[in-house]
Structures are given as structure tokens and as C-alpha cells.
């Protein structure tokens, strides 16, 4: 599609040189005797999409966009529809012209190029007049190795159909059945439920699933064997090989800007990360990374494979600007290759069509590799932090500051569990600077602050590092937060404190952090922990409603601190009943310090959990609003924890997980929790302006209006649910606080903003993105635009 203005220079010796050509496909300066290397990226593209329909006259035509997870699973879906007598229509290959025509509907400027490109493929399928568009909501890919923590997809890969339905609204049904490739039995159930709506027999669908799995396995096997054969031949011939690694969708020639052609054109053979599919590469424990994402896992294993090969194999990784998981992966790959005497060539690619700088860099790398073909390499050991053993239980465990409300209550709760935890002071500018020194600069802002806080504390000299450990929460799931522990461990090693253990506070057992000395009897401390969470939420509600109405400035803050101090004493005594009683006392006390005012403007706060709770991180948005006599409807912790009851039922309904524990046990536990919530609501209602803590299943009904309840990454469906709840309560001004480049936010906040405003046109939604370099003036200016509309 390029129309290059090419100059031809003919020299006296008849040699010819061309300039101005964006590619060398037509006009080449390599000479007639140049030999190209084999390009398996191009071969992969052909193997993936060159498939014939059994019938061209299907009763139903399903359009499949040529993007994101279709670059992984298209053989399966094509065979499945084929066997069911459904005609599939692929969107056309990606072009920059089509991309520019569809980019107007992209909701997030800083989302990755592969996601932006999906819009053009949807418009292409609309032009093809298909009956339905198919964008499966694939949460789990196949788990290629049991030792992996999980095989999630990135939230954008999983949930981009939500954005398409909201932003593009193609007037054609967009189907996104919830899918897992981890379990064949569950996958079959999901396909049966989806396809039966078209009148297809259950047995036909089951047979089609079996055939589709065979098609997928054959594709993967052929691709793997082809890579191995080509590499073996290259090695025997002593030729240079480049493993060009990336996500499956980096196979798209437009997304990769034909990098594979460029490299093979220089006489180097290009193989792909598929060479390590189902291959044991060993030493999986020698990494900080929590191997939770399927595509990242494969790239990681490919890097390990390259590290063990000779100098005739080099690792080149493609990454898209704005790729959240790669902020964690890149450092790990550098470390793996570096320990084996090799280097990483990282190529960042986006929608910029001028790739001259990339071409120059690739050529320089290839030339240098030719000279270093026989260079000797020195192996280095993997260094990691000390395990937290039984002997370490007496250590002081440092926890990063989170919020004014729950952070003071964490040490007494964990003291009951047998651990001495100290919460660090609130972050400051030094935290951000320290975090940038020891964590990848492209990780989300909360990670920068958390890493900075912990390492800053260790460097302060206040603590005996031989008697100190650090702790971080892990929730699991598709969000990047589960890999904060990797950043902390890596940062602590680089800061020179290998003797400091890192502890994971998680209720699951799949976080891959060996810590034999840290075990919590959750059944023992759950009653007091629940009471602490509910108490903290009540105090948050009391404070924010009082601070804007207080008779004497600072009285609400003083009262907040008093009751948090009293709560800490009751928690240490394990008196949950007394803690609930304290809610009632606090409610009456807060009534005494306010001047009643019923018609104050209100603003709700939602967003990423750390950012919406942490005052330093969000530039003290709540206090800024309070100073202007605007009542803040604060974020709460209760829903974040109780959503597990909704998520479990949804995952069983959509066949994402199997039962395990009997359902009546979960139902009983939910009833006990809900009973405590209702008790707290009754006690807290003694405060004049208290609004009840919502029932999580009612919240879920609100969330379903905007996104599927399978959106469980980050804040997931809970974020749009809170926005809808605010709208129904009459709070029509909401601020969504997000880290810059938050991959979950691209789906559940910015991505569905159009749908929210369509259903609730009165909603005034302001999205604020934060990172360590965000301008406070810029934040205030945007807040002023919101607040000026309230007057």
C-alpha cells in the first residue's frame, strides 16, 4: 500500500542504489547475489489463516476479526464452526488505510496498537454484511506447563468485545461467549451453550469440539516441528538464527511492520517462540516473575531456550507501546539472557508507519552478531531473596501504606495471627523517586510507590535488615498487581538486601512464593478481620460526610483518628462484638460535630483500588473536593472482598471453573457475612448522613448493565457497578482514578464510558490518569472543569 517516491542512482560501474523506498520488496540495494534467510513468521501467518470452509452456503455467516486472540485460536474456531455447518468470514488482512478509518472509535489513547487495530477489522466485517461477529471472551488459554501459576489472557485480549459493543456499536450482534482452554470438559460445555442457540444438536457440537481441538493441536504441532527443523538445519550449516518473539498477534505484518521480512532479508533465518510449545526448558523457578499470563509464559520460556543455545541464536522481542504485562516481562528476559552471557534486543512498535529507526537498529544488531558469533560467554547465578522460614516469624514485617482507614488496623489483625507487622508512613516524592530507580519505569504507578516505600525504608537505617521482612498483598487474577511481588523481590536484590524475605499475603495458593514460615489460620481471624473492614468503611463514610459539614475545622479528622485508635485496641483483644458496638458510638459522636446541610453537591470516587484509596497517589483528590464544600462519596473495601461470592457463582454458571467446595458452604458463609453487613448498616444509621453498604448481589445487577460479570480483572465489573449505583442514587458526578496505562481500566472504565453515558446520560464521568510524572496543575485544572459544572 506504500507509494514511495524512489530515487535511482546508477554508478559508473553499473551498480544501482535506490533511496526513498520504505521497504526493499521492489527496490532492493542488497545486490543480485543476496541470499534471504527463511522466515517462519510469514509461514506461521499462512498456516494460521489459510483454511477453507466446508460450505459457502451456510445457514449462518459468522464474521471473525483478524486480531488479538484469533492469532492463537483461529484453527479451533474455524474447525468448530465448519463442523457445525456455519460459514466463517475472516476480516481482510490489516492495512494502515483501514486502521486510520477505524481509529476514531478508540476509547483509550494509550491502549496498545493491536487493540486499536481491532476497530478496523470490525468495520470490515460490517461491510461484509456478516450475520454475527464473533469475539470470544477467552479468560484462560491452554496451560502449556503445569508449573506455571496460570494461563490467563491479558484483560484487553479477553474483554475487548465489551469495548467494541460500547464504542463501535456495529448494529450486528457481537457474540462473546466466556471461554477457557484450560479444561476440555468446561470448554465443551461453553461451546454447547453458545451454539445451541442456533438450533445445532448437542452431539453435533460435542463432535465439532473434538474435531476443533484436533485442528488446533495439529496446527501447533506443525508450527513447533517446523521451527525445530529449520533451526536444526541452520545450526548444522553454522548460520545465524534470530528467534523473533512476541504475542501471537505480532504475527500480523502490519503490527510488526514486517520486521521478520526485514531480518530475513539480511540473510538471517527467523524462527518464532512456538519452538518451545510443550517443551521442558527447565529452571522455571529461577525467576521473579509470577507466570500468570499464557502469552508471556511462552515468550519467557523461549528466552530460557535461547539462553541455553549457542551464539548462533539471538533473541529479539517485539513489544507494543502501552503493553502492561511486558513491563514485568522485559526485565526478566534481560536477566535470563544476561546470566547466560547474551543480550536482549527489544523493539517497541506502535502505529507509527515510519520504521526507519527500527530498520537501522535491526541492521546494526545483525551485523554485530555476525562478528560475535564465536565469542565466549560467562554464566552467572540467579540471585533471589531469602525464604521466609519458621525461624523468621519473629522478624518485623514492613507493609506499604495503603489508606487512612484500613492501614492502621492491619498490624493488630496480623498480630492476632502471630506476626509483627509495621505499616510504613504514607508515600512521598522520595518514594516515587526510589521506585523509579528499582522498578521498570513502565509499571503502573502504585507499583512504583510500593517498591519505593519498601526499599526506602530498608535504606533508612531504621531497621535491622537481618530481622526485617516485607509483605505485599496478592489477589491473583489477570491484573498486573499479582506481579508486584516480582518487582519487590527484584528491587530488594538490586538494592543489596538479599537477606530480607518477601512475604505474599494471599488467600490462594497459586502465587508461587515459597514462604513456609508464613501461614495464617484465616478461619480464626476472619471474624475480627471482617469486623475491621466493615468498621473502616463506616469510619470512611462518617468522615467524608462530616468533614464537609464540621462545625470546627479539623474536628472530623481528629474524631476519625480517635476511633481508629480505639478500634486497634479492640482488635488486639479480639473483641469483634465490641468493635461493632464502637460503630454505633462513633455514629452518634460524628453527629455532634456537624452542621446539618442536606443539599451539598456530591462526587463519587471509583477506580483502581490503590489509587482511589491512597491520598498521596491521587494528589489528595478527596480533600481538595472537601475544601470546596463538595461531599465525597468515598470508595469502600467491603465490595472488593465480597465480590468473591458473585464471582464464584458467575464462574460456575459460565463454566470457567468447577465446583470444588460445596455450594451450600459458600452460601452459608455469604449469609454470615451479609448478616454482619446488615448489622453494621443498622448501627451506622445512627449517623444522619450514613448511606448503607450495598448488597454485593444488587451491585452485580447494576454491573451487568454495562459489562459481563466475567470481567473480574482489576476492579472488574465492580467499577462500572459503582458508577451505576451512584447514578441510581442521584450522584451524577463521578471521578474514575486510574494508573496511566492500566490494562483493566481500558476495558471496565474508559472502554465502556460511551455505554455508561448512553444508559445514564445525566452521568458526568471524569477519568484521571496518574503516574509519577503527572502534573498536579493538570489534575486540578481537570477537577475544576468538573466542579465548576456543579455550581
List the main descriptive attributes of the protein structure presented here.
12% strand, four-stranded parallel beta sheet, 5 domains, alpha/beta, 791 residues, Rossmann fold, 45% helix
Account of the protein in words:
The protein contains 27 helices and 20 strands. The chain is α/β, with parallel strands linked by helices and 791 residues long. The chain folds into 5 domains: 1-34, no CATH class; 43-219, no CATH class; 225-371, Rossmann fold (3-Layer(aba) Sandwich); 390-516, Rossmann fold; 600-636 and 693-788, Rossmann fold (3-Layer(aba) Sandwich), CATH 3.40.50. The strands form 6 sheets. Strands 4-3-5-7 form a 4-stranded parallel β-sheet, with helices on both faces. Strands 10-9-11-12 form a 4-stranded parallel β-sheet, sandwiched between helices. The longest helix is centred in the first third of the chain and has 36 residues, at 202-237. The radius of gyration is 28 Å and the shape is globular. The protein starts with 6 loop residues before the first strand and ends with a helix. 50% of the residues are buried. The mean pLDDT is 91. Keywords: Hydrolase. This is 2-hydroxyisocaproyl-CoA dehydratase activator. Residues 61-276 form the DUF2229 domain.
Amino acid at each position: 500500500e506504500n507509494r514511495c517516491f524512489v530515487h535511482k542512482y546508477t554508478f559508473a560501474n553499473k551498480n544501482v542504489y535506490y533511496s526513498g523506498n520504505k521497504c526493499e520488496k521492489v527496490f532492493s540495494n542488497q545486490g543480485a547475489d543476496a541470499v534471504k534467510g527463511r522466515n517462519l513468521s510469514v509461514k506461521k501467518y499462512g498456516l494460521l489463516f489459510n483454511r477453507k470452509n466446508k460450505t459457502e452456503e451456510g445457514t449462518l455467516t459468522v464474521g471473525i476479526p483478524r486480531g488479538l486472540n484469533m492469532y492463537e485460536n483461529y484453527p479451533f474456531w474455524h474447525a468448530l464452526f465448519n463442523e457445525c455447518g456455519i460459514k466463517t468470514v475472516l476480516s481482510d488482512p490489516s492495512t494502515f488505510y483501514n486502521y486510520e478509518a477505524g481509529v476514531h472509535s478508540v476509547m483509550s489513547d494509550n491502549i496498545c496498537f493491536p487493540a486499536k487495530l481491532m476497530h478496523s477489522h470490525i468495520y470490515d466485517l460490517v461491510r461484509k454484511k456478516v450475520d454475527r461477529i464473533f469475539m470470544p471472551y477467552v479468560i484462560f488459554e491452554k496451560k502449556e506447563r503445569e508449573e506455571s501459576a496460570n494461563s490467563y489472557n491479558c484483560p484487553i485480549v479477553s474483554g475487548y468485545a465489551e469495548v467494541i459493543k460500547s464504542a463501535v456499536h456495529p448494529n450486528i450482534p457481537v457474540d462473546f461467549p466466556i471461554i477457557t482452554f484450560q479444561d476440555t470438559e468446561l470448554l465443551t460445555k461453553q461451546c454447547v451453550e453458545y451454539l445451541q442457540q442456533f438450533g445445532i444438536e448437542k452431539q453435533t457440537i460435542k463432535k465439532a469440539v473434538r474435531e476443533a481441538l484436533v485442528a488446533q493441536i495439529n496446527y501447533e504441532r506443525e508450527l513447533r516441528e517446523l521451527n525445530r527443523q529449520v533451526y536444526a538445519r541452520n545450526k548444522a550449516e553454522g548460520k545465524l538464527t534470530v528467534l523473533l518473539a512476541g504475542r501471537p498477534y505480532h504475527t500480523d505484518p502490519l503490527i510488526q511492520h514486517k520486521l521478520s521480512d526485514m531480518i530475513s532479508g539480511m540473510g538471517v533465518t527467523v524462527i518464532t517462540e512456538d519452538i518451545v510449545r510443550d517443551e521442558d526448558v527447565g529452571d522455571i523457578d529461577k525467576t521473579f516473575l509470577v507466570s500468570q499470563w499464557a502469552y508471556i509464559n511462552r515468550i519467557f520460556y523461549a528466552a530460557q531456550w535461547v539462553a541455553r543455545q549457542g551464539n548462533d541464536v539471538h533473541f529479539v522481542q517485539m513489544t507494543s507501546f502501552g503493553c502492561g504485562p511486558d513491563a514485568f516481562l522485559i526485565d526478566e528476559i534481560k536477566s535470563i539472557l544476561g546470566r547466560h552471557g547474551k543480550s536482549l534486543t527489544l523493539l517497541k512498535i506502535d502505529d507509527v508507519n515510519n520504521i526507519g529507526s527500527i530498520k537501522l537498529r535491526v541492521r546494526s544488531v545483525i551485523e554485530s552478531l555476525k562478528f560475535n558469533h564465536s565469542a565466549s560467554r560467562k554464566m552467572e547465578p540467579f540471585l533471589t531473596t531469602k525464604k521466609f522460614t519458621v525461624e523468621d516469624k519473629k522478624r518485623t514485617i514492613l507493609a506499604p501504606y495503603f489508606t487512612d482507614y484500613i492501614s492502621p488496623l492491619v498490624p493488630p489483625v496480623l498480630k492476632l495471627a502471630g506476626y509483627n507487622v509495621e505499616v510504613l508512613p504514607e508515600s512521598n516524592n522520595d518514594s516515587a523517586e526510589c521506585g523509579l530507580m528499582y522498578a521498570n519505569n513502565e509499571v503502573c504507578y502504585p507499583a512504583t510507590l510500593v517498591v519505593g516505600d519498601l526499599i526506602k525504608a530498608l535504606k533508612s537505617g531504621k531497621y535491622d535488615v537481618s530481622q526485617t521482612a516485607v509483605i505485599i498483598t496478592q489477589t491473583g487474577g489477570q491484573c498486573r498487581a499479582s506481579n508486584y511481588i516480582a518487582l519487590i523481590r527484584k528491587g530488594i536484590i538490586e538494592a543489596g538486601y538479599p537477606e530480607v524475605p518477601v512475604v505474599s499475603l494471599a488467600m490462594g495458593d497459586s502465587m508461587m512464593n515459597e514462604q513456609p514460615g508464613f501461614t495464617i489460620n484465616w478461619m480464626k481471624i476472619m471474624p475480627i478481620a471482617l469486623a475491621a473492614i466493615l468498621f473502616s468503611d463506616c469510619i470512611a463514610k462518617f468522615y467524608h460526610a462530616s468533614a464537609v459539614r464540621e462545625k470546627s475545622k479539623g474536628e472530623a479528622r481528629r474524631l476519625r483518628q480517635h476511633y481508629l485508635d480505639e478500634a486497634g485496641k479492640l482488635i488486639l483483644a479480639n473483641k469483634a462484638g465490641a468493635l461493632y458496638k464502637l460503630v454505633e458510638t462513633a455514629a452518634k459522636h460524628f453527629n455532634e460535630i456537624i452542621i446539618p446541610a442536606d443539599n451539598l453537591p456530591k462526587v463519587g470516587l471509583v477506580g483502581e483500588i490503590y489509587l482511589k484509596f491512597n491520598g498521596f497517589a491521587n494528589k489528595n483528590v478527596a480533600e481538595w473536593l472537601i475544601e470546596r464544600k463538595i461531599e465525597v462519596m468515598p470508595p469502600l473495601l467491603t465490595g472488593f472482598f465480597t465480590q468473591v461470592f458473585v464471582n464464584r457463582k458467575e464462574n460456575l454458571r459460565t463454566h470457567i471453573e468447577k465446583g470444588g467446595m460445596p455450594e451450600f458452604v459458600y452460601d452459608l458463609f455469604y449469609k454470615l457475612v451479609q448478616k454482619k453487613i446488615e448489622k453494621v448498616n443498622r448501627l451506622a444509621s445512627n449517623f444522619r448522613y450514613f448511606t448503607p453498604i450495598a448488597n454485593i448481589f444488587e451491585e452485580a445487577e447494576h454491573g451487568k448493565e454495562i459489562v459481563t460479570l466475567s470481567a473480574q480483572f482489576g476492579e472488574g465489573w465492580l467499577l462500572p457497578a459503582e458508577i451505576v449505583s451512584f447514578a441510581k442514587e442521584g450522584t451524577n458526578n463521578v471521578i474514575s482514578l486510574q494508573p496511566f496505562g492500566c490494562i483493566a481500566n481500558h476495558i471496565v472504565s474508559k472502554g465502556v464510558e460511551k455505554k455508561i453515558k448512553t444508559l445514564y446520560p445525566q452521568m458526568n464521568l471524569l477519568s484521571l490518569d496518574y503516574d509519577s510524572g503527572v502534573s498536579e496543575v493538570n489534575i486540578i485544572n481537570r477537577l475544576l472543569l468538573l466542579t465548576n459544572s456543579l455550581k
